[in-house]
Amino acid sequence: MKVKTNYNRRAFLKVSTAAGGGMMLGFSWLASCTPADTEIAEVAVQQMPDNWFNINAFLKIGDNGLVTIFSPNPEIGQNVKTAMPMIVAEELDVDWKDVIVEQAGLDTEKYTRQVAGGSQSIRQGWQGLRLAGATARHLLLAAAAQQWEVPVGELTTSGGVIHHAASERTIGYGEIASAAAGLEIPAEVELKSPADFKIIGKPQKNVDGLPIVTGKPLFGLDVQHEGMLIAMIVHPPAFGMKLKSADTATIATMPGIRHVTTINAAPEGIEPQWSDVNAFPELVAIVGDSTWEVMQAKKALQAEWEQVSPPESSEQHEAELTRLLQTAPAEPARKDGNPTKAFAGAAQVIERTYTAPFLAHNTLEPMNFFADVTAEKATLEGPIQTPEFLRKSVAALLGMPEEKISVMMTRQGGGFGRRLYGNFGIEAALISKAVGAPVKLVYTREDDMTQGTYRPDYKVTYRAALDANNQLIGFHVRGTGTNGSPVFADRFPAGAVDNYLAENLDKSSNISTGAWRAPRSNFIAGAEQAFLDEVAEVVGKDPIDFRLELFDKAIAKPVGEKNDYEPARYAGVLKLVREKAAWGTDQPGVFRGVSAYYCHNSYVAQVVDVVLEKGRPKVDKVWCAVDCGIVVNPEGAINQIEGGIIDGIGHAMYSALTFKDGKPVQDNFATYRLIRHREAPREIEVFFVENGIDPTGLGEPSLPPISAALANALAKATGERLYTQPFAQQQSVLG
Amino acid sequence: MPVYKLTINGEQRELSVAADTPVLWVLRDHAHLVGTKYGCGIGQCGACTIHLDGVAMRSCSVPISAVGKQKITTIEGLSANGTHPVQEAWLEHDVAQCGYCQAGQIMNAAALLSDNPNPSDTEISAMMNGNICRCGTYTRIHTAIKTAAEKMS
Fold it and tell me: How much is the pLDDT for A6?
C-alpha cells in the first residue's frame, strides 16, 4: 500500500544529522530493551554508536545500526511505550532487539495528540507511526541505491540490513544512515502488508520491565533535581468550602520548613480549560526540605474555611437522583417508533433501576509534579495524561509564552483518567513561582482521595415492553448522574428494537467529577447488560441467544440511522466467548454470567464463573473475547484486558466514595476498599478475533461489561439480582 | 537531630533525621533510594515494602529510631541487575502495567518465598493480600510467584 507522506506536515522534522547526541539517554534506555538478559545489555552498551542520525521526529539511527525510537504519548501503564515504537520498528524493518525506546517530551511541532485518553493512542497513532518508520526505511533504501548506483526497486530490507540480490551486496542501516539523513523526504512511501508483519502481532515485553523490577527512578514522585524543595498543599476539608484564612506564621518556624504561602489557580480574568476541573483552586502551600518535615507542618496548620455553596451528602444525592428519574421532564436523546404506544400495549413491562456510587481514581502513585519557574522559563516534569493542556493552563496563569514552558512526561503510576486534569501541575508551577525555587509537589493519599475529580454517582432506569409472545417491542432507558447522564443514546440495543426511547437528566453538584476509566460506559454497560440478562430470563431464553437475536435484527433491519456499533462484530465476540467458555455445559457448583459491550471502538464479550467459598461467592475464572482489530502487542494487550477485568470486578464489588456534609467519608485505603490479591479471579483467558482491521482501543473496553457478567453470575449463585454497587455491601454477597 | 548508623543494601550510611521519620522517607529523601514507593502512608497498600533483616516490613510505618542494627534491604539491593528469581519471574511473565506497586510486590514475594519456598495458592494469596495493585495484575503476580518458587527449589 502506497501512502502520501505529506512531508511538510509537522510530524516530520527536517532530515538532519546529530553527532554524538543522545548518548547518555541511549545508555539508560538501552538497559530497558534487554529486560531478561543483563549480559546482552552490557555487551550492547559497549556498542553504543559514535554518531546518531536523526531521520525524523520518531527515530534516529546510530552508525552501528542501533535505533532509538521515541514514544510520543504519555505512559500510564497502558503500555504504549512498548506498542507505539513497535509500530515504527515494523515499518522501518529492524530487529526489535536493536531498538532503544525513549519517552518523548511534549513537542507539538513534532507530534500530534500527545494524550493518554479514550484508548486512542494506538488507534490514532497507527498511521503516523507506520509512516514514520516507512519513510525512514525509504530514505535508507534511496541512499543505498544512490551509493550502489542501482534502481531502488531492486533493493530489499530485513532486520536493519539492505540487500541487493543481483550483486550480492548488503549494507546495514547504520552504515548508510548518514547518507540517508541528507536526502529529501519522498512524496509517498510503501507500507507493509499486515501479512508481512514481523514485530506487530508478536508478544513483546514491556520496555521498562527491568527498570521497574529493579526500582530505578521512573515515576514523577522519583524526580529529583539540584536545589529542589518538597511542596505540599492543604485544601478545604469539604466540597462547597474555600479558604478563608491560614496561620502561616506559626508553622513557618517548624523544622525544615522554608516557605508557607497561599496560591490561587483560578484567578479572575483567566478562562479555565476543560482540563482545569478543580473544586479547590485556593490552597495553602507548604514548602520545605523533606517530605516528612513538610507533612508535620501540614498537620499542624491552623486554617479557617468558609462555606461558599451548600454541603452535599450521599443520602441527598440518592434522593435527588431518584427524584430526577421518577419525576423530572427530559427531552428525548433518541426516539425510534412509538415507545409510548408500545409500553401502553405491552403484555408485560419489566422495569429495573441500577445505582452506583462516586469512585476515586486512586492511582497508586498520588498526584505530584515538579516545577522550576524562573523569570525566563518554566520547566515542568511529571505524570500527566494531557501535557499540551497543562502547558496552556500554566502559560495563562504565569503570563508566560508557551514556547518558554517545557513539559516532560515521566512514567506514570496509573492514570485511569485522573491525570487528564492537571491541577497538580498548575499548582506546582504556581508554588515554584511563589517561592522562587524548584519544587516537587506531592499529594498525600488523603489529599489525593479527598480532592476529586471523581467518577460521578449514577442512576439509571430501564424498561422493557414485551408482547404476548414475549417479543421485545419497546425499550426505554432513562439515566442521570452528577454532572451528566451515563446514557449513550445510540448504543445497543438502539437499532435492535422498533420502539426505543433514551432520556438524559443532569444533576449539578459542587463535587468535582471527571473521566474515570471508560467514562459513563464503566457504569452503563453493567446496568444495561444486567437488565438484558433479566429480560432474557423473563422471556425464557438463553442470555446469549437472546442478545444474538437482537443483533440479527440490527443486521437485517436496523432501526434508526445512527447506531454506534457494528452488530456483526458485536455478535462475533459473543459467539467466540460462547465457544471458548463452552457456554451451556453447566458444572455443579459453578455459576455463570455473560455480558458484552462496545466502547472505544472495540468489542468485548465476557463469561464469568463464580464459585462459593465458605458460602461466599468468589470469581473463579473469566473468559474474554475481544475484537479490537489488529493486535499490536499481544502480551501487553492481554495484560490490559486482564487488568480492566480485575479493575471492573474490584470497583463493582468493593469500592465506594461517599459524602457527609460535603466531606468524603473515605480518605485512605483503610476505609476505601480496592480489590486485593485474594479477590482476583484465579484465571483469565483472553481470545482475540483475528481480522485485518486497523487497531482500536484496548485500555478501557474490557472494564465496562465485566460488572454485568459478574452480577449475572452472582444472581445465579445467590438467587438475588443486584442493582446497587458495590455488590459486596449486599447481604446476599456477604453470605 | 539524632544521627543513625544504618546498613542499607550492604552499605554503611550515617543519616541525620528526626527520630520519628518513617524509614520510607529516610530512604527516599535522605538516602536517595526512590525504588521504595509511597502509596498510602498507613501500611495499607504495601508499595513501600522493604526487608528488615530479611523480614518484609511496611517502611511507611516503621520510624527510623526503631531500626537499630537491623539491616535494611530495598528493591535496589535485592539483587545485582535484577537477577533475583522473583525479579526474573516478574520479567518472564511481563507482570507490570504502570509498575508503581511492583517493587513492593516483589519485596513482599521475595520475603514470602524465603520463609516458605513452596507456598500453596492459598498461602500466596494470603501473603500477598496486603499489597494493592491498582492496575489489576494480581493473576500475573500470582503466576510469577509460582514460577519463582519453582526456580528457587
Answer: 58
Is B88–A643 a contact, with Cβ atoms under 8 angstroms apart? no
DSSP characters for B66-98? GTTTPPEE-GGGSSSTT-SHHHHHHHHTT--SS
- Residue B29 is nearest to which of A78, A290, A642, comparing CB atoms? A290
Task: Indicate the burial class of A469 (C-beta count within 10 angstroms; 0-12, 13-18, 19 or more).
Answer: exposed
The amino acid occupying position A271 is E
Angle at A32 between CA A72 and CA B10, to 5 degrees: 135
Q: Is the pLDDT of residue B107 over 50?
A: yes
ipTM score: 0.99
Interface-testing mutation among A224, A232, A292, with chain B (most B C-beta atoms within 10 A): A292
Q: What pLDDT score was predicted for residue A591?
A: 98
Neighbours of B81 (CB within 10 A): 14
Q: Which helix (H) or strand (E) holds B87?
A: helix B85-92
Count of C-beta atoms within a 10 Å radius of residue B80: 9
pLDDT in the model for residue A36: 36
- Tens digit of each residue's pLDDT (9 = 90 or more) over A49-76: 888 888 888 999 999 999 999 999 999 9
Residue A314 lies in a domain: no
User: A43 phi and psi, to 5 degrees?
Assistant: -60, -45
> Which domains, from first to last, does chain B contain?
3-77 (3.10.20.30), 85-152 (1.10.150.120)
pLDDT in tens, A22-56: 222 222 222 233 333 333 344 344 468 888 888 88
The grid coordinates of residue A593 equal: 454470567
Q: Residue A447 in 3-state DSSP?
A: helix
Q: A353 and A406 share a domain?
A: no
- A561 and A631 within one domain: yes
